[in-house]
UniProtKB/TrEMBL annotation, chains A, B:
Pfam families: TetR_N
Keyword Ribosomal protein among record annotations: no
Recorded GO MF terms: DNA-binding transcription factor activity; transcription cis-regulatory region binding
Domain HTH tetR-type stretches: 8-68
Keyword Phosphoprotein: no
Keyword terms: DNA-binding, Receptor, Transcription, Transcription regulation
Descriptive protein name: Gamma-butyrolactone autoregulator receptor
Segments of the chain annotated as binding DNA: 31-50
Length: 190, 190
């Protein structure tokens, strides 16, 4: 048990370290050796968990994707179209704000974009689920374009280094407003 | 004179061919040899115009950037804040729609993003000029976030393969509406 806990702990630290190095040097500019050095372990210890940098990149991205999947699932279970959109929008904005560093990396780094591609942009992906919810039933082109612009705008503005000095609450409220305006949703009471 | 005209013509064809190959295979997946083969010229003929693929990528991107610069300049010369924003927005949307293939490449290809970076994201770049116009004087955080989301949303939705089946007019009108909503601008009359 202790060994398993130790391995889990190393894996978690490894992923946090990888994200930090990816942010500083890009995925291309980060080697397994650099991750090992930063962690103070041998390269063999890194290999124990991950065989390639692509595997690490996928593992860095995975928790955020799982969260997005579960938000899509929750939103889809709302009965009213408006409530579905509001749930999806609030969940997506909150995810982007909490994972700002990763989102910034995703928008700027080809390595992360590649790792995300198969999960995020495949036919069955959560991106399709999110878009279906945000466009609503029988959308006209203006609505489809607005939903695409909302998702791209929220993700890129959320991860933008130009906006990194805003605190989470300010960024979250401003990004929600972006989504509400584009999707025609009222401000929530309370 | 005839020789110069011939060279100009080859250069233009070379850039159009490069954009087509970049779109099909990515910048990384396109070689100078592939460009030469597609044009039916020798690799030496390509070298006559460009020494590296980076030079070609920059040259492919440059006309669009020059257009953006001149739109920023025109918009800045408008006297009223609202007119500045409307001019900038209409010009940017039109540019994105006319250069859809390039915008799509820019959003998805690290090679193009790198070539654009120094022109587009530097301190003195036209991106800064565009943002200054779109946010208006003394913007609050919500306004800054909205302007960033508008630019990112328009560019990424405009270049999205999911929306490639919309005709130019439909896409242009829908993207303008995205910008107007986020920047609080009224629809134009007429």
């Amino acid at each position: 048990m202790a060994a398993v806990a130790g391995h889990e702990d190393t894996r978690t630290r490894l992923l946090a370290t990888a994200l930090r190095l990816f942010t500083a040097h890009g995925v291309e500019g980060t080697s397994l050796q650099m991750i090992a050095d930063e962690l103070g372990v041998t390269k063999a210890a890194v290999y124990y968990h991950f065989k390639t940098k692509d595997e690490i990149t996928e593992a860095v991205v995975e928790p955020g994707l799982r969260e997005l999947e579960s938000i899509v699932g929750e939103a889809a279970r709302e009965r009213r179209v408006g409530a579905r959109i509001d749930h999806m929008l609030a969940g997506f904005v909150d995810l982007v704000v909490r994972h700002r560093a990763l989102v910034a990396l995703f928008s700027s780094d080809p390595g992360v974009a590649r790792a995300l591609e198969k999960h995020f942009f495949g036919k069955e992906s959560c991106m399709v689920g999110m878009m279906t919810i945000l466009t609503g039933p029988d959308p006209d082109p203006a609505r489809v374009v607005a939903a695409h612009a909302a998702v791209a705008g929220i993700a890129l503005a959320g991860g933008s280094p130009d906006l990194a000095h805003y605190d989470d609450d300010t960024l979250r409220e401003s990004l929600l407003e972006v989504g509400r305006k584009l999707l025609g949703r009222p401000r929530r009471r309370g």
